């Protein structure tokens, strides 16, 4: 018996990095997981296959019947596009009849100082990181309200709390997620829906790999724990909120090695 047996989860931008680790953690506890991807179809399918294999193994070890093949699916959608984001949520509900856990994880960076930032850089990051959260949340809400159950977990960033050089657009999008989370939490609490934000610090994914190595070393020197986070360490906190966070709402949980306190 997993803690999330019977639950249906969606992870946006779930094919790689932090989203991938979150999808795996939720699936390991028994949730059915819809893995949204933008362009990484092969990576998303590889993850679906890995989840199916893991659940098959779990079923055999428990001496039960074969695991349901529908434990995971990959769904293409650009969640910065209102129609596609809403369509993604609609597809999941149509296919599995409910939606219990929504993890808004998709995100991009377009780092430039304000002196060099273009309107296009600004809008791309706000659309991908913040507007997407509004689209998917409002699309999932009616079904969650009907169920009287929902767990919405928005992946923010420590940059949304502290700011960071060259990241005005990213910081605004991630700070916006925290403010959005609090209002949604206030409005939805009466329906049994919790809404929380998770603020990772610097985490070892493709996003961090884009940062030049000398800058990475400078960043590391500022982290009290002296190392970058692992995607699995972010996923553990998401799993906690999804499975055990019954009385936690409107919070920002920092998983950042102490870089911001
Ligand atoms: P990543 O670049 O490895 O993964 C991001 C994923 O989001 C990719 O799969 C990408 O295709 C997807 N995505 C982006 N825009 C999308 C869209 N419009 N529609 C669908 N999918 C889209 O980066 P990551 O580090 O795994 O980032 C995951 C989340 O964690 C992001 O929201 C990021 O801002 C946040 N975060 C990361 C760090 C870090 O240091 N890595 C720190 C704090 C917060």
What does this structure look like?
This protein has 261 residues and is of the alpha/beta class. The protein has one domain (8-205, 231-254): NAD(P)-binding Rossmann-like Domain (Rossmann fold), CATH 3.40.50. 49% of the residues lie in helices and 14% in strands. It contains 9 helices and 7 strands. It has helices at residues 17-28, 41-61, 82-96, 119-147, 159-162, 168-188, 206-209, 213-221, 231-244, and strands at residues 8-11, 32-37, 72-76, 101-104, 150-155, 193-200, 252-255. The protein has a 7-stranded parallel beta sheet with strand order 3-2-1-4-5-6-7, sandwiched between helices. Strand 4 (101-104), helix 4 (119-147) and strand 5 (150-155) form a beta-alpha-beta unit. The longest helix has 29 residues, at 119-147. The chain is globular and about 60 Å long. Bound molecules: nicotinamide-adenine-dinucleotide. Nicotinamide-adenine-dinucleotide is lined by residues 12-13, 15-19, 36, 38, 40, 78-80, 105-108, 128, 132, 155, 157, 200, 202-203, 205-208.
Task: Write down the secondary-structure element order.
Answer: EHEHEHEHEHHEHHHE
CATH superfamily: NAD(P)-binding Rossmann-like Domain
Radius of gyration: 18 Å
- Distance between the ends: 36 Å
Supply the CATH class: Alpha Beta
Look at the structure and give the mean pLDDT: 96
How much of the sequence lies in strands comes to 5-15%
* Strand numbers in spatial order across the main sheet: 3-2-1-4-5-6-7
Number of domains: 1
Largest β-sheet summary = 7 strands, parallel
